[in-house]
Every structure is written in structure tokens, then in C-alpha cells.
Amino acid sequence: MWFAGFAFLDLGFFFGLPNFDPELPVLGVLALLAVAGLALQIGAAVHAFIHARRASPSPAKRYQRGWIYAVMVVALPALNLAAPGWIRAFNTPSGSNVPTLLVGDHFFVEIGYYRTHAPRRGDMIVFKSKDGRVDYVKRIVGLPGEKIQMLHGNLYINDQMVPRRQIDDYLYQSDNTSVLTHQYIETLPGDAGEPGASHHTLKIDDDGPLDNTAVYDVPAGHYFVLGDNRDNSLDSRVLSDFGYVPAANLIGRAYIIYWPFSRLGYKFD
After folding, report:
1. Of the chain's two ends, which shows fewer C-beta atoms within 10 Å, N or C?
2. What is the domain partition of the chain in residue ranges?
3. Tens of pLDDT, residues 119-157
């Protein structure tokens, strides 16, 4: 029963929290889980102590040797350190994905997610640069075999313009300067009749250097990525320095912000 309680709490931490309802008070949920975990540990220790005091002495069994417990104490943490991480934390040093990711945001990434899931349009992904020295976070907009183009600031996928709806302007702050930019809700095409993902994008105007491009043919096994802050993002539109992202370079899926507290719980989908 004690073990079942710990297992339930672990499931809550590792699977429940990253997928909680955005309306839930995440800090309260986290605090309750932490208090419950501490209570379980104290309860298990007290229960074990009382049970041991009441038990009658019995000879030690083969597996009840001091050196076996010593090996366990050393081996289990070593195995834990050697195991590949399921979740890694990243931070945002630039404004290329404002307003989705702000400078200084810290977020969790599910490592190896794409070993068992196909990358989907609209996913916010973390991946290695061409030389493997830099980790980037961008949004997938183009899949292998598709044609991507920018015309007058609008995104086209296979010759179809991706709809965008203008909402209230956004005050973009960078390097002690503030710029009032246009803000849109862009809705990407879905798969097999499913509704596509929607997200916010920023544009100062529609005549920037990357607002009118040639047609990009996304190669097999590669993805076309853009930053949500379209006028301030180095992404797949710049083939010479960035280009298409190979599937082999994908690190994982970014899905939830955990710091600062004012942004805690913000999900990218």
C-alpha cells in the first residue's frame, strides 16, 4: 500500500503536472503533491518502526547481508545518473519566439519524444544546430515533401495561404526599446480533417527581408521551422545559415513553462 501511494504520486508528478488543465492552480497542485509525498515518507517510516518493534526476532536470510545493502545504496543512484533524462529544462535567451516564449522563460522539454511520436505541424521543438553546438527552439510549420513560401508576410503551405487573424497590438520590448507590433493568431492546417494548431505571431510590417521569399521544397526527413516573432527570428527561411531541420537533430518537444511564477503552467499547444 505504501508503494502504491508513492507510485501514484510519481505518476502525478511526471505525467499529470505537464498535462494539467491550464485552469487549475498549478502551484496549489504542486504544493499538495509535495506535502502528500512528505506525509507518505513520514508515515512509511513510522509504520516500519512500529512494525519492527512488534516483530519477533528471526535469523537473517541470504539476501539480508550488510554488503548487499551497501551495494544498493551506491548502485541505485549511479544507475539513476546514468539513465537518459526523460525531462530536461531549457531557458530562452532571445526574443525569436515572443509572445509564446519570452526572454528568461524556463521550460521543460520531453527528451526523446520524437522517437515514438511523429513530429506534427505546430509543435514547438528543441533541436541541435547544423554543427551540433547550439540548441534552438522553434515551431514546425512545414513537413517533409511540402512547399513553403512567405508572401507579403503571410505563410503559404503547398500554395495555400495560412489564415491569420489580427488581434490587439503587442508592445515588444528588447534592449531597453519598445516597439508596438501587430499581433496575429495564425491557424495552421490540420491532419486528416483535424483542426490545426493555433498560435500567436508578431509582425512589425509585411515587407521585411524575409517576408517575400522563393518557394522552399522541404526535403524528406527534414522540417521547416519558424519563430513566432517573424521579423526577429533566424529560422529555416535563411537556408545558408539555418535551413531545414533534419529529424536526427530533434531533441524533444517543448510543452510547459515552469519559471518565472507569473508564467508558470503556460503550455505551447
Report:
1. N
2. 1-55, 88-263
3. 999 999 999 998 889 999 999 999 999 999 999 999 999
CATH numeric code, 88-263: 2.10.109.10
Task: Work out the mean pLDDT of the chain and round it to a whole number.
Answer: 88
pLDDT of residue 233: 95
SS3 72: helix
pLDDT for res 16: 58
Q: Among 96, 203, 233, 236, which one carries the catalytic annotation?
A: 96
* DSSP single-letter state for residue 135: E
Compute the half-sphere exposure of residue 96: CA atoms within 13 Å on the CB side of its CA.
Answer: 16
Cell numbers found for residue 226? 519558424
User: What's the whole-model pTM score?
Assistant: 0.72
Helix (H, G, I), strand (E, B) or coil at 24: coil
In this structure, the number of other CB atoms found within 10 A of the CB of residue 88 comes to 15
Cβ proximity of 98 and 172 under 8 Å: yes
250 CB-near residues (< 8 Å, 6+ apart): 114, 119, 125, 126, 127
Average pLDDT over residues 65-89: 80
147 belongs to the catalytic site? no
Nearest partner of 91 among 103, 76, 100, 77, judged by Cα: 103
Catalytic residue selected from 58, 61, 130, 138 = 138
**Strand order through the sheet with 87-91:** 87-91, 106-111, 250-259, 124-128, 135-142, 222-226, 245-246
- pLDDT more than 70, % of the chain: 91
Catalytic residue list contains 267: no
